[in-house]
Amino acid sequence: MRNPPIKTVLFDLDGTFADTAPDLADALNRTLAANHRAPLPFEKIRPVVSHGGRALIELGFGIKDSDSSFEALRRQLLDYYQADIARHTQLFPGILELLHALQRDKLQWGIVTNKPGWLTTPLLASLALPFAPCSVVSGDTLPQRKPDPAPLVHASAICGCDPAACLYIGDAERDIVAGKRAGMQTMAALYGYIRAEDTPQQWQADSYIEHPEAIYPWIHAYNELQLQNTRYAE
Question: Which CATH superfamily is domain 8-19+89-233 in?
Fold first, then answer.
């Protein structure tokens, strides 16, 4: 069965669409300081950002979520983050140009993230995006979260697009797992928040990119190939 051309591009948010690590690192270090702990270098925090507040607290305090102080620390971290959610955050270089290219080609785009909606909504609003997404699915939109495919399937339904005509781009293994289970094409963003112990080449994504500038050429080549295959079959 032939794959259809890509009509909708769905992005993970942190580490794929927007570079949120500086603000999340600041929030963690403010939490550490408030609890009489030394700050951590940005280079140590950045790879953990895609895994959310729980992973940041584990990194900063060396405790698990079973610890009695864990939830209060996580809440403190998120409060600091919400207060300055976009002081340094910006789109990754090349994403703005990609959005313009998708608009020109009449392709849709959307966001599927495990970040809760009360953080996702103000963050996206702060980025002054030139075009509205066809869907934004946050970590609390549905009972399920990635790596469950349900959020991706839900996003494609909102966009009115068959999952097979969607590309999902993410920087974590759960992104690729969710995309494949949803029946989408998948792309691993190697420019994102990849930990030293991660093995992205084993995620079995359909493609791997080192920079957002590579996304549009891949989509264009993929769609041309699908159209050629369709013409040959006629």
Answer: HAD superfamily/HAD-like (3.40.50.1000)
pLDDT at 153 over 70: yes
Does residue 12 carry a catalytic annotation?
Answer: yes
Would you tell me the crossing angle of helices 95-104 and 215-233 to the nearest 10 degrees?
Answer: 30
Alpha helices (H) in the chain, listed in sequence order: 21-34, 42-45, 52-61, 70-83, 95-104, 117-126, 150-158, 173-181, 215-233
159 neighbors 193 (Cβ within 8 angstroms): no
Domain ranges (residues) in the chain: 8-19+89-233, 21-83
Query: Catalytic one among 12, 19, 23, 175?
Result: 12
Give the pLDDT confidence of 40-91 residue by residue, as tens digits.
999 999 999 999 999 999 999 999 999 999 999 999 999 999 999 999 999 9
**The residue to which tokens 């953080």 are assigned:** 119
- CA proximity to 44, closest of 30, 33, 28, 31: 28
The rounded distance, in Å, linking the Cα atoms of 133 and 214 is 20
pLDDT given for residue 228 in this prediction: 87
For the four alpha carbons of 49, 50, 52 and 58, in that order, the dihedral sign comes to negative
At 124-144, the pLDDT tens digits run 999 989 999 999 999 999 999
